[in-house]
Write a structure and sequence with these properties.
By secondary structure, this protein is α+β, with helices and mostly antiparallel strands. It has helices spanning about 25-35, 40-50, 70-75, 80-90, 100-115, 140-155, 170-180, 190-200, 215-220, 225-230, 235-240, 245-255, 285-305, 335-345, 410-420; strands at about 20, 50-55, 65, 95, 120, 125-130, 160-165, 185, 270-280, 305-315, 320-335, 355-365, 365-370, 390, 400, 425-430, 440-445, 475-490, 500, 505-520, 540-545, 550-560, 575-585.
Length: about 575
Amino acid sequence: MPDIPVPARRRQILPRRVLALSLPNLALDRQAALAAAAGDDQAARDWRHGPAACHVSGPRGPVLTAISQTARDQGVRPGMTLAEARARLSAIRLVPADPRGDRHLLARLADMADRFSPAVALDGGRGLLLDITGVAHLFGGEAALAARAAQLLSRQGRLTIRTAIAPGPLAASVLARHRQPSLIITPDGADAAAALAHAVGPLPIEAIVEDHPQAVQGLARLGIRRIDALNALPRQSVAERFGPDVIAALDRLYGRMADPLHPRRPPAAVEARISWAEPIGRAEDIAAATASLVDRLAGDLATAGLGARQLLLSAHIVDGAVRSAELGLAMASRDPVHLMRLLAERLDRIDPGLGIEVMVLSAPRVQRLGVADRALPGLVSGALPGLISCALPGLSGRGQAVPAGQPVAIAALIDRIDARLGSGRVRAVQIDAAVLPEAVARLVSATGQAIGLDNLPTRAPAALDGPHRPTAPRPPRLLPRPEPVTVIAALPDDPPAQLRWRGRLHRVRLADGPERLHGPWWQMPGQVPGQVPGQVTETRDYYRIETWDGDRLWVFRAGTAPGLGADIPPAGTEEPGWFVHGIFP
């Protein structure tokens, strides 16, 4: 029966809405929270209501960065040195700034904000930007969403938060940082442009071009200090005198130019979420919610013709914490039974705490998938003999080969082992574009490999599969690291006549070579994986030798031997060394 085309649903284009959460006193509020946690109530009060500031190193000594409002009212300004600040205000409380700790706190707040929007961006180091287009009705409207987000984030240390909603990221950020009261909502619809112009017009010019202080000073000398006054000037004259960035910022603010939002994480290709008015905490409720999310995600994947290669389940707790469970799949799948079986192995790791109010299931990595290969069982039985190794506890990482001809699909088996024992336990061999033998093959996570029905290998990978085809046979057994040996040769360029390896003296019966291998020209000694410390390995001469005892070894000389066709190394350099690198059967 021929396929019946499904008509595409017409999407309703919604006006863009961006919520800005400004944290003007992030560094100071964090210092106050640290003082309160340490039991120093007086210091906490000073950080919140008294004169206080943080400082960083500057060319003239430490300079102030974050400053409390009380200190500002008494003449302390950013950029002042500590001596200048103490001269104006001797009772000011000062500590070194901690940008790393501030960024960590901001990242934690962004994780909490994921429950309100699938796209959360950092507004520099001063706040967050959330794309709330089409999601505000889930939280009772834009005003309720903004109030709820501010309340949740402010509980993490009594943070000062200002909010604003506007059609673009720059407009929302500017309104949140420079307008009072805290909540400014620019209405959407026909009067959005007029309302936006009325809201941002009285704001200072440095709100949009703070990275161009010379332009701000030049405009101030002309008496232009407000955004609406700048917008009334001839565009060509402003661009010629103060640069095109000023006009670009103005156009982004008023919506005349695209103002993209850059989420801190790439948006997932497919995502499903559930929220509750009353939080849940029972294991049965969490499992039922996960099953519902899986069904919805599988349906969306089927509609898009995709299969999931990675799943991320996030549970947002009432107190703001986020519990996550992440897993990868060896083969793209949208089979809800298989996906639920994998997630069920990780549900016990999600602590509901005070209760879960939002659960999100996303597929960060997807792969195009046809109709015929949407389910895993029975598709690739025994298709990967000898390819997969499993790092089970107690095996010291050596792994055990999965027997060929398993009745269960290999991909499904990989997924279940990886979900139960942890990510990275199942590994696969990957062939890289390398010349040196120890860098040709490496073990990687099997769930990170792009395995599909169109590229399933029918045998274990070999070095011959790489782009650099060897000109001589390779040993099936390669030592973990080349082992040094003592060699006696008739001439420097000759193969070994005898060698001492592992405490035994081996006399050479037959030798074949050399095969010269060079490392990549852009790598210096010490950068090659598996390189022996202190040895020059850009040039290696490999020999296949057979001893009188029947041992067949693969040995190489590191560096160029002085002799025919080679320059004598300068004094003080190390002589070329010999190593055993592999064993032939």
